[in-house]
Every structure is written in structure tokens, then in C-alpha cells.
Amino acid sequence: MTLLLIPIAFLTSCLAGAIGLGGGVLLIALMPGLVPAAAILPLHSLVQLASNVSRAGFGWRHIDWTLIPAITVGAIAGAFAGGGIYANLELHWLPAIIGVLIILLTWVPLPQPRGGGQLSLLLLGFYQSGLGMLAGATGPLGAAVLARRSVQRDWLVVNTASYMSINHIIKAGAFALIGFSFGPWLWLIAGMVVASVVGSWVGTWLRRFIPEIDFQRWFRLLVTLLALRMIALPFLSG
């Protein structure tokens, strides 16, 4: 059953490459039941790191390097804060916690950092990384912040991938410092990473053929159903 995560990584990375968001949320919503609760967020961080780095790499001409420093500083601070909370969680309930956070992030309008300067980027890095230590997939949160700078789709897709790459590498390092061992999962990680990179390439190729339409409603309904499954899992497993 665990090996199902390899084709799932391909499909979710392909979705993110084509549309610009949604792959990470969908991946983490499908992981509970396929890997132990303690492995969900660390594995998700590494696989999404590969997906986002490859997506940014395939569109490197659109990277805005002025975004990087402030987001990085904020992400380090956020990982420190979120890691302290994660280290004290009861992992049996982690899928339910992630499910609740996904529903909130999907349906509840959250406050966005105001302005277009470096402070908004610093705050974006902080809450992306902090919430990411608990919910895993927080990429859609930054869309409104980046959209103040450009609404051009390729720019948004590539720069979302850039700042989420920073977010995921910092989170993966934080999970290692907390004590998670990636060693037993290296073969699965390798398979999912390759699948994610190929999915990013396919999604990037498909993006030129997909009209910029609003698919948010159906995507939200699908993610909500998967999040409800996550909330039910700890109760069903006793």
C-alpha cells in the first residue's frame, strides 16, 4: 500500500505544475493510512521540496530573487515556533489535526500580511513555515501576497514554487533536528522524488494548453472530503 504514494506523488506534482497549486494539499490528504502518522509531515516536506524545486527550475527565468531573503528569515523563525508545538503533539491525533487545519485553510479567509514590501514577505515565510510544521501543505496561503506583485500565471506558479522550496527544506531540517529518522524511508522518498520531478515536468508542459479557469470550487470539495477522512481516521483506529 505504501508504494501507492509513488504514482500519487506524480499525479499531485503534475497538478501543481499545471495549475500552480493544490498538489501538496492533495498529497498530504492522501497519505494517512499509507504511512504512520509520525512520518506524514517529514516525508511530505521532502517530496514537496523535490516537486517545488523542479517546478521552479523548469521555469527559472520567472524567479524573482528579491523575494528570497525575507521569506527565508521568516521561514526559519516559523519552523522554530511550529517545531516546538509539533514536538509536544500526540501523534495519534495528528491526521485529525491536519484535517481540521486543511479545512480551515481551504474555506476560512485568513488574514494576509498587508503591503507589498519586505515585511509582508517576512510574515509570509513565518506563517507558511510555522503552519506547515503542523498542516504540511500551506502553499495556497501565499497566493494573495504574491498576486500583489504580479498576476501573470507563470510568474505566480514559479515564485510560489520558489518560496515553498525554501519552506520545505527548512521544515525537513527542523523535523530531523526534532528527531525524525529519514533513513528507513529512503527508498520510498527516492521513488516519490523521481515521480514528483517527472510530474512537475509533465505539468509544466501541460500548463500551456490549460486555460486560466476557476477550478477552485471542485478542488475545495475534493480536499474537504479527504480532510474529513483524515479527521475520522484516529477514531476508526481506536
How are the SSEs ordered, and which strands pair?
Elements: H1 5-19, H2 23-30, H3 37-58, H4 68-86, H5 94-107, H6 118-135, H7 143-147, H8 153-178, H9 186-207, H10 216-236
Structure, described:
This protein is mainly alpha-helical. It has a domain at 65-206 and 216-238. Helices cover 71% and strands 0% of the residues. The chain has 10 helices and no strands. It has helices at residues 5-19, 23-30, 37-58, 68-86, 94-107, 118-135, 143-147, 153-178, 186-207, 216-236. The model has no long low-confidence stretch (mean pLDDT 82).
Query: Mind telling me the C-alpha Rg?
Result: 16 Å
SSE series = HHHHHHHHHH
- The low-confidence runs, each spanning 5 or more residues with pLDDT under 50, are none
Distance between the termini: 21 Å
Question: Quaternary arrangement of the chains shown?
Answer: single chain
Please work out how many helical segments DSSP would assign: 10
Q: In which range does the helix fraction lie?
A: over 70%
User: Given the C-alpha coordinates, what overall shape results?
Assistant: globular
- How many strands appear in the DSSP assignment? 0
The whole-number mean of residue pLDDT values reads 82
Please identify the structural class as seen in this structure. Answer: mainly alpha
**Strand content range:** under 5%
Largest sheet: none
